[in-house]
Design a protein that fits this description.
single chain; 125 residues; 0% strand; 4 helices
Length: 125
C-alpha cells in the first residue's frame, strides 16, 4: 500500500472518529444515564486532530515517517477501543471484550510515546 493510500485511509478514519465523537457528545447531553459517553466522546475528539497533525508532520518529514504512521494508526485503534467499549457498555450493556477500554487507553499512551520517539529519531539523508 502506498503512503498516499495510508494517509487517505487515516484521514477517512479521522473523519469517522470526529463524527462519532460529536454524536456521542450529543447522546451524552441528551440521554439519562450516559456518563460513560462523555469520556468516549472526548477520546475520539481529542485524538482525531492528533491523527491529522501526526500525518502532516510525517508527510512534511518533521518526524520519522514510519513511526509517525504507527503512532497515527495507534491513535485510531486506541481511541476506537476505548470509545467502543464504553459505548457498548451503555447501549448493549456488555463490554466490547474484557479490558478493551484499558487496552485502548494504554495504546493511546504508547501512541503519544511513539510520536515523541518519531520526533527525536534521526532523519536519514
Amino acid at each position: 500500500m502506498t503512503s498516499t493510500v495510508l494517509y487517505r485511509v487515516l484521514i477517512a478514519l479521522t473523519g469517522l472518529m470526529g463524527a462519532a465523537g460529536v454524536a456521542l457528545a450529543a447522546a451524552a447531553a441528551h440521554q439519562g444515564d450516559a456518563s460513560r459517553l462523555a469520556p468516549a466522546s472526548s477520546m475520539l475528539l481529542f485524538h482525531a486532530p492528533a491523527v491529522l497533525v501526526t500525518i502532516l508532520l510525517a508527510v512534511r518529514r518533521v518526524i520519522q515517517l514510519s513511526l509517525g504512521l504507527v503512532a497515527a494508526f495507534s491513535f485510531v485503534v486506541g481511541a476506537g477501543l476505548f470509545a467502543g467499549d464504553l459505548s457498548m457498555r451503555v447501549y448493549l450493556d456488555h463490554a466490547l471484550f474484557p479490558m478493551a477500554a484499558p487496552t485502548g487507553g494504554s495504546l493511546l499512551i504508547v501512541s503519544w510515546l511513539v510520536l515523541a520517539v518519531a520526533a527525536l529519531w534521526p532523519r536519514r539523508g
